[in-house]
UniProtKB/TrEMBL annotation:
Domain of life, source organism: Bacteria
Biological source species: Paenibacillus baimaensis
The EAL domain, residue ranges: 24-277
UniProt lineage: Bacteria, Bacillati, Bacillota, Bacilli, Bacillales
Entire-sequence positions represented here: 354 to 642 of 642
The name this protein goes by in its record: EAL domain-containing protein
Length: 289
């Protein structure tokens, strides 16, 4: 009986696999075209200092402007890009474009805050990552301190290797943050050995801090631990004023989330920065400066 059942299960699985791999192949070809035809673009989500209310950074988040499907979010193609290895050229493009844009904004006087770029594990494990980063900085003329690389806990499974890579990157002058913190398996005893600058608390913990005492305790503990380790800490996925107040009361440094702003186009970033400047100029006028 069990065997029979197993066989049936296998057949169903097999049929699904076929259409799945076909889909994967189509998507892969589509993605290759996306890269060569400039269909990829970056959105930017501001990060706000809780105490001052200032924008202190922007995270670059990839979008795919597909000719038929419209704007495709990363969760629908990054996993395939990772599987196929296309994440490597795509990731290189992201880093180049994010740095180029940040430098341009600085040259135009729009903004002087760092840009964060997500690094997939496959990129992190590349032997020439340090050189890639260094070349992008040279090509774009961006100062290293304006680039922050976001890695996930899964990139740090081989602890000694990860520390080596991170030290190389830090020597260039870029900043490092751990993204989606709390969802992986990194051990706290290793965390203190990593030369990093910031922890990003995963949004799955932040979502229910007002209703779930366990989540509230987890978030409060991560913040407290991070501060004791002299790292900065940012909460992801902050959507409500209540969450903001909770995080402020617990001395979280920064927030990122829909409450402040969703990820937006470059056009919207420029609009936002101009508006902030006008408000500041107006305030200067009023205070008689
Ligand atoms: P992530 O790096 O953790 O980025 C944060 C995600 O949370 C973004 O989704 C953002 O739009 C979303 N988010 C921000 N604020 C809120 C909020 O208040 N509520 C909710 N529900 N969501 C919020 P997005 O842009 O769809 O990106 C999803 C993931 O795709 C990213 O998660 C990152 O892991 C990956 N990704 C995005 N761009 C890149 C990239 O250039 N390279 C790589 N390797 N991965 C990327
Ligand atoms: Mg991220
Ligand atoms: Mg995250
Ligand atoms: Mg994520």
């Amino acid at each position: 009986h069990a065997k029979n059942k197993g066989k049936q299960t296998y057949q169903v699985f097999n049929t699904e696999m076929k259409s799945d791999s076909l889909q994967r192949l189509t998507l892969e070809n589509d993605l290759r075209r996306a890269l060569s035809h400039n269909e990829l673009m970056l959105y930017y989500q501001p990060q706000m200092d809780i105490e001052t209310g200032d924008i202190v950074g922007f995270e670059a988040l990839i979008r795919w402007l597909h000719p038929v499907r419209g704007l495709v979010p990363p969760n629908e193609f990054i996993p395939y890009a990772e599987e196929s290895g296309l994440i490597v050229p795509i990731g290189e493009w992201v880093m180049q474009e994010a740095c180029r844009q940040n430098k341009q904004w600085q040259d135009e006087g729009f903004l002087f805050v760092p840009v964060s770029v997500n690094l997939s594990t496959r990129q992190f494990l590349q032997h020439n990552l340090r050189d890639q980063v260094s070349e992008v900085l040279q090509r774009t003329g961006l100062a290293a301190s304006y680039l922050e690389l976001e890695i996930t806990e899964s990139s740090t499974m081989d602890v000694d290797f990860a520390i080596g890579v991170l030290l190389e990157l830090k020597a260039l002058g870029v900043k490092i943050s751990i993204d989606d913190f709390g969802t992986g398996y990194s051990s706290l005893s290793y965390l203190k050995r990593f030369p990093i600058d910031k922890l990003k608390i995963d949004q799955s913990f932040v979502r229910d801090i007002m209703t779930d005492p366990n989540d509230a305790a987890i978030v409060a503990s991560i913040i407290s631990m991070t501060r004791h380790m002299n790292l900065r800490v940012i909460a992801e996925g902050v959507e409500t004023e209540d969450q903001l107040v909770f995080l402020r009361n617990n001395h979280c440094n920064e927030i990122q989330g829909y409450w402040f702003s969703p990820p937006v186009s470059t056009f919207k970033v420029e609009e936002l920065m101009l508006r902030i400047k006008q408000v500041a100029a107006h305030q200067d006028e009023e205070s008689g400066e």
